[in-house]
Amino acid sequence: MVIYSDSLIYLDFDSQTDILWVKWPHLVNEPLEIARPAIDKIIETIKHFQVSKLLIDTKDTSTNIPEEDFKILAREFVLSLATSNLKKVARVIYAEPRRELRAKILLDQLAVWLTPDFQSREFTDIKSAFAWLESDEN
């Protein structure tokens, strides 16, 4: 069921599997004041529906926000996830290698600092990500 959709984000929640599918926002020439409410909407949805499984699809996402803004948003997002009901987070990686490397380095740093309570894995395709989220596999 589509929970929310606008020019930045798409949120689809399946109550049968308890999976929230997020098409990550395109953040091209968007100031932090525009990007932050999109991230807040994702977090609000996770908490409202007590989501335990999250699929973040970044594969076709474009972004050119400054490095410092990217770090701020990522840190706020991961901190908010730490206080949620999440058990599993799957991320479909960026298609563009340079952007994926930037994201991976930052997420690895955040994981060491925050030590989240949920499991997370990265995938190159949505089908594999959904399969892992739906499985009992860790």
Report on this model:
The protein has 138 residues and is of the alpha/beta class. 43% of the residues lie in helices and 21% in strands. It has helices at residues 32-48, 67-82, 97-114, 126-134, and strands at residues 2-5, 10-14, 19-23, 53-57, 88-92, 119-123. It has a six-stranded mixed beta sheet with strand order 1-2-3-4-5-6, sandwiched between helices. The protein starts with a strand and ends with a helix. The relative contact order is 0.16. The model has no long low-confidence stretch (mean pLDDT 82).
State the gist of this model.
By secondary structure, this protein is of the alpha/beta class.
What is the name of the CATH superfamily? STAS domain
C-alpha Rg (nearest Å): 14 Å
CATH topology: Transcription Regulator spoIIAA
Number of helices: 4
Low-confidence stretches: none
Counting DSSP E segments of at least 2 residues, the number of strands comes to 6
Percent range of helical residues: 40-55%
Which CATH C-level class is it? Answer: Alpha Beta
**Total number of domains:** 1
One letter per element, helices H and strands E, the order comes to EEEHEHEHEH
User: Which shape, going by the Cα principal axes?
Assistant: globular
Q: Determine the strand fraction and express it as a percent band.
A: 15-25%
Secondary-structure-based class equals alpha/beta
CATH level-two architecture:
2-Layer Sandwich
Estimate the mean pLDDT confidence.
82
- From the N-terminal CA to the C-terminal CA, the straight-line distance is 26 Å
Strand order of the largest sheet: 1-2-3-4-5-6
The main sheet comes to: 6 strands, mixed
